[in-house]
Amino acid sequence: HYSFFPGNPRWSSRRRNLTYAFDPKNQLSEDVKRVFTKAFDRWSEWTPLTFTVKSNYRSADIKIGFYTRNHGDGEPFDGVLGTLAHAFSPPRGLLHLDSDEIWQIDGVLNNRGSSSVDLESVAVHEIGHVLGLGHSSAEEAIMFPTISRGARKVELAKDDVEGIQVLY
Ligand code: TQI
Ligand code: ZN
Ligand code: ZN
Fold first, then answer.
1. How far away, in angstroms, is 85 Cα from ligand 1 center?
2. CA 145 to centroid of ligand 3, rounded, Å
3. Is 120 a catalytic residue?
4. What is the DSSP string of 95-159?
5. Ligand 1 proximity of 83 Cβ (cutoff 6 Å)
6. Residues 102 and 115: beta-carbon distance below 8 Å
7. Residues 29-36: what's their mean pLDDT?
8. Ligand 2 centroid distance, CA of 86 (Å)
9. Domains and CATH numbers, the chain
10. Pick the catalytic residue: 126, 139, 140, 155?
11. Whose CA is nearest to atom 15 of ligand 1?
């Protein structure tokens, strides 16, 4: 079953059209940006929310960046595996990924094989957090707190949809 953060924080009902931007320091490939477009679309399909990418990082609602180790928010990353990514509850809008991971794009295995992590699976999960979902006890849910090694899980489960529709 789905859960929320303490106090059920969510984006205000006056804010249905949210923007996101990538930290310009990262110089991300179009492939990576496309993964986020798809990941946001999975949530907008089931909510009144829309997500639009913008180039002005500082004024975006949701700020996405890849960082290693200590990166200034008191939640350091830890190198390969362990913590893969994190996101803060609404309305903070920070979505951070650990650049030490071997990120797999579109299910294409890269040459380091089993320790790679599917980017879209993690992006869909972290967007759930950015929107206000906590972890789910339903194994099939995107918001379930563990994923099998090398797995790709990108489709929202009924449980995720029910949770997000309670919030929005
Ligand atoms: N990162 C954790 C996560 O996003 C951070 C975290 C731990 C957390 N406890 C929390 C966030 C409680 C909110 C509330 O869940 S993670 C997965 C999964 C992680 C794990 O790196 O462990 C995914 C990030 F589900 F695959 F295990 C993304 Cl998809
Ligand atoms: Zn961070
Ligand atoms: Zn999580």
1. 7
2. 5
3. no
4. EEEETTSEEEBTTB--TTGGGEEEHHHHHHHHHHHHHTB---S-TTSTTSS---TT----SPPHH
5. yes
6. yes
7. 97
8. 6
9. 17-167 (3.40.390.10)
10. 126
11. 145
pLDDT band for 29, please (50, 70, 90 cuts): very high
Tell me the two tokens of residue 103. 């990120």
What integer pLDDT is reported at residue 149 of this predicted model? 74
Ligand 1 atom with the shortest distance to the CA of 83:
21
Return the SS3 of 58. coil
Angle ∠(51,54,56) on CA atoms, nearest 5:
140
pLDDT value of residue 114: 65
User: Where do we find the tokens 């939640």?
Assistant: 75
Query: Dihedrals φ, ψ of 151, to 5°?
Result: -80, 160
Q: Is 97 in the pocket of ligand 1 (CB under 6 A)?
A: no
What ipTM goes with this model? Answer: 0.95
